[in-house]
């Protein structure tokens, strides 16, 4: 029997509810596929702040580093919104990403045929959208130095950050993206702002140089403002997108909203070695936390990504993905994706229905 | 008779075609409203590069500075895409913005009832959208220093830029935005990434402090990734948006695409004093340049903004806006906004129809 150690980070808001469902789904699918799990549940974000005073306790990071994969619910909430930077839940997440060295963030935006009407885009525009945003996750303006607050030559207060990329940071994410594109539609669009920013000019130069090694991939370049438009005008033109940390933050959220059902979308963050970090792209939704209203599909699909990209357990991943589709086909929906004619259920009951389909 | 000097910058691609129409519309509406114009046509962008070797000749800037307002067509094209930074058409535009000190960029995103079906968003989502993005235009990462290419402590090549805002830069754009919101729906949404970036934390702090002076304006704050989603989910929730240079670049383009007809959207860039810069938000469209296919509406509406915000000639501005609506109602369309049952015309003929409606 294959055996893996998984760190569970329920986090805040609806995090614990969706993680609980995903854990059950992992256990059941594992028992069928001959996979054993040891789960370690640890604190992150607001939950960690309340309990320990820091958003990423050392213990959480060291346990996560030693495990085979990390599954995260969601972090953040109004309660901690006014905290100073080093005491924000978000800072814990950024420290976790940096600590695990997961530089490649994969964010699929897939329109489920069963949910196409949930998109605010016209059916003919949304139908069949299946794109992957690959976001650089441990560099750029999120981590660049110098950063902080200062005084300029006129004695005026300032706030500043540094967008910076070194050659190897661009090369490894670009290489990663070329490889993913090769397994998908062999089309890669690199998004930058090379008409204005030196950091982007350098990005484009490195991506272009690497393209020599991937003659089978159709590479294009797009300015970020145009990409924000094209995602709305015709999202089906995209197959795989690669971009920097901040542009990826914006464009992957935009792309996910195009599907109309962000409660369905998982993500994976991977490094060169060591455990990957898997999480739904939705947030902690404090408004509905603890009310059994959360949609656990995205976290369950994140568990499938964990199996595929984190553990190489393709069959178990597919089993979970089929169970999700089957549950959708049987008409079960949480409130966020409900439409008339389908069956409205809570988070727990949806979890039970997914288990029936596993 | 009131008399004004206008600098015309046709620029590249379809620029000359749309500027020619807007000039005729200004002249005719001016003759009715008792306004006289002296036009100075100057070089900018690729056209300037080809003729003078620089994208913003000194003469263009000095003539522009001395005029009452500047009307720009569009700049850029494949021909100059590979140029070094200081020889890019875009650099000329950035130098012009900086030279005119136009720190406030107003970008309305309005869905015209006649064109609502051109949006890829569902009718009920797009209908009635009328929002204004106010983008900081002369600061932030576009102009921040240090910037360039370097070598890091590992001897590796890097590319870098600085996102920086000083107190007065934030205060003046925020004040501007509060004033605009006051004339609109009294709702202002400030977009930042204050959960990660110090530059954004400082931005939010200054905006919050200024809010004391505008108790009648409902102020909210939104993270840029969420804003990119909310624009698609429910654009009607927004009235006035204020944000930094790079986020504004991305979000204003996204917002404009939501309307489905970027060929209709004007923009204004204003400073504390001196001439404003007015331009359509669409680009130079090199593919259709010189073919009489361009849509001149956005430039004509930019001329209306020039009258309203640049010269304080509200009546003449309204006359032009009414002429545009009337021409739309009479069914005239260029190819980009054509739908069956309407009359397809070229740029020139559309110009003549607008003149009939002035
Ligand atoms: C919570 C926040 C720090 C984070 C980010 O900006 O990376 C989130 O928006 C995301 O995309 O995962
Ligand atoms: C052409 C380019 C430099 C410019 C910008 O990024 O500001 C354009 O995208 C715009 O929004 O006016």
UniProtKB/TrEMBL annotation, chains A, B:
Signal peptide: none annotated. Its EC number is 1.1.1.85. The keyword Isomerase does not apply. Its cofactor is Mg(2+); Mn(2+). GO terms for biological process: L-leucine biosynthetic process. Keywords: Amino-acid biosynthesis, Branched-chain amino acid biosynthesis, Leucine biosynthesis, Magnesium, Manganese, Metal-binding, NAD, Oxidoreductase. The keyword Oxidoreductase applies. GO terms for molecular function: 3-isopropylmalate dehydrogenase activity; magnesium ion binding; NAD binding. It catalyses: (2R,3S)-3-isopropylmalate + NAD(+) = 4-methyl-2-oxopentanoate + CO2 + NADH. Catalyzes the oxidation of 3-carboxy-2-hydroxy-4-methylpentanoate (3-isopropylmalate) to 3-carboxy-4-methyl-2-oxopentanoate. The product decarboxylates to 4-methyl-2 oxopentanoate. Belongs to the isocitrate and isopropylmalate dehydrogenases family. This is 3-isopropylmalate dehydrogenase. The lineage of its organism: Eukaryota, Viridiplantae, Streptophyta, Embryophyta, Tracheophyta. The chain holds residues 61 to 418 of 427 of the full protein.
């Amino acid at each position: 029997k294959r055996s893996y150690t998984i760190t569970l980070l329920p986090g805040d808001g609806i995090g614990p509810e969706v993680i609980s469902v995903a854990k059950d789904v992992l256990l059941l699918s594992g028992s069928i596929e001959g996979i054993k799990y040891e789960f370690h549940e640890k604190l992150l974000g607001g939950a960690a702040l309340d309990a320990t005073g820091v958003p990423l306790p050392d213990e959480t990071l060291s346990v996560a580093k030693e495990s085979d994969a990390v599954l995260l619910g969601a972090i953040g909430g109004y309660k901690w919104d006014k905290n100073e930077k080093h005491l924000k839940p978000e800072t814990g997440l950024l420290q976790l990403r940096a600590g695990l060295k997961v530089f490649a963030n994969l964010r699929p935006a897939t329109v489920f045929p069963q949910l196409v009407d949930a998109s605010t885009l016209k059916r003919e525009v949304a139908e069949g959208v299946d794109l992957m945003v690959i976001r650089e996750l441990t560099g750029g303006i999120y981590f660049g130095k110098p950063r902080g607050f200062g005084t300029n030559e006129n004695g005026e207060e300032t706030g500043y950050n540094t967008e910076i990329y070194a050659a190897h940071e661009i090369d490894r994410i670009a290489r990663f993206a070329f490889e993913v594109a090769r397994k998908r539609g062999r089309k890669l669009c690199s998004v930058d702002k090379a008409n204005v920013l030196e950091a982007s000019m350098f990005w484009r130069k490195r991506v272009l140089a690497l393209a020599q090694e991937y003659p089978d991939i159709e590479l294009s370049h797009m300015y970020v403002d145009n990409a924000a438009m094209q995602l709305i005008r015709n999202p089906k033109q995209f197959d795989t997108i690669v971009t920097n940390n901040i542009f990826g933050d914006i464009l992957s959220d935009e792309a996910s909203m195009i599907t109309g059902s962000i409660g369905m979308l998982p993500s994976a963050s991977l490094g060169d070695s060591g455990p990957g970090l898997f999480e739904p792209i939705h947030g902690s939704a404090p408004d509905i936390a603890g009310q059994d209203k959360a949609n656990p599909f995205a976290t369950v699909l994140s568990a499938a990504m964990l199996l595929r990209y984190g553990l190489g357990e393709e069959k178990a991943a597919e089993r979970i993905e089929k169970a999700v589709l089957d549950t959708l086909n049987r008409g079960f929906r949480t409130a966020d994706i409900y439409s008339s004619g389908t069956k409205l259920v809570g988070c727990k009951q949806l979890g039970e229905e997914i288990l029936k389909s596993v």
